[in-house]
Amino acid sequence: MGSTRKGMLNVLIAAVLWGSSGVCAQYIMAQSQMSSPLLTMVRLLFAGLILLMLAFVHGDNIFRILKHRRDALSLLLFSLAGALTVQLTFLQTIEKSNAATATVLQFLSPTIIVAWFAPSPPRCSAPFWVTHGDPTSLSISPAALLWGIASAFAAAFYTTYPSTLIARYGTLVIVGWSMLIGGAFLLPLYAGQAKSIAINGGVLLAFFYLVVIGTALTFSLYLKGAQMIGGPKASILSCAEPLSSALLSVLLLGVSFALPDWLGTLLILSSVVLISLDSRRQARVRKTPLNV
Most buried by CB count within 10 Å: which residue of 85, 174, 238, 253? Predict the structure, then answer.
């Protein structure tokens, strides 16, 4: 198998696994009565430790960033406003609605990024999706909509802010520390809730899948695939994430997804594809020498 096909396969698998992790989180909260902040705390702590161990095995100096005050402060900001906020708002959206809704709303982040940096912002298809074409009503609760939009903005910050830190210290180190710090921030606030949750074999298995498969393995697959095929192609293929989340939510959790929901989802994903294709086109234009 060629490197391009292998990279595409890695990104597709990662996208499907990411989509399934939201469904897994919904199952855990429903079965164990675990609150979204508590699940956020536990997921971040375990995932952060796993990613830092992977970075250590990979040969990275995981403690070097802590010796540089300015970079350590930037890491703290990214941990709280990025890793913690994106996970907490995502799980809050699931708690207020379902995994499919949360994943689709968070997938507005590429549109937000382009709207922030581009001189002519793209059109957004989210209004159709949340109103089912009727501007006088909402198809989801206001709380779910607000948490979902907050999740999209948090994901946009999470994607764009840490580029300098990642270039200096590596992706696994930065993301691992950000998750660990974000989870540690919630520890004194929500650790006491762990006494009241209901744990059984199914919940433990789902939690293992969420942390190990849906976070650590998925993250590694996506990074490796994106490195092989480039960011724009990876963005297009990652559209499998909300689709897989929607399908699994319908099949496994019995979530109702009407025709306007599917149409709105496809419109949102189409905007992401067009944004990615336009990014590739602009990159090629910048690389083409001018004839003078």
Answer: 174
DSSP 127-190: HHHHHTT-TTS-SS-HHHHHHHHHHHHHHHHHHHTTHHHHHHH-HHHHHHHHHHHHHHHHHHHH
- Vertex 243: Cα angle to 240 and 246 (nearest 5): 150
Dihedral pair phi/psi, residue 162, rounded to 5°? -85, 15
Q: Which whole-number Å values give the CA distances from 18 to 14, 116, 136, 232, 257, in the listed order?
A: 6, 26, 33, 18, 19
pLDDT of residue 271: 57
User: Is-contact 37 189, C-beta < 8 A?
Assistant: yes
Name every residue whose Cβ is closer than 8 Å to that of residue 292 and which is 6 or more positions away in sequence. Answer: none
- Going from the first residue of the chain to its last (292 residues), give the mean pLDDT of each consecutive group of 10, the final group possibly shorter: 76 83 89 90 92 91 94 96 91 87 74 56 47 48 86 82 87 91 94 81 90 80 73 67 72 66 60 53 46 37
What's residue 258's pLDDT? 64
pLDDT of residue 246: 72
Q: How many separate helices (H) and strands (E) can be counted in the chain?
A: 15, 0
Measured distance CA(90)–CA(106) in Å, rounded = 7
Burial class (CB in 10 A: 0-12, 13-18, 19+), 192: exposed
Of 175, 174, 204, 214, the C-alpha closest to 91 is 214
pTM, whole model, 2 decimals?
Answer: 0.76
* 290 three-state secondary structure: coil
Distance of CA 3 to the CA centre of its chain: 25
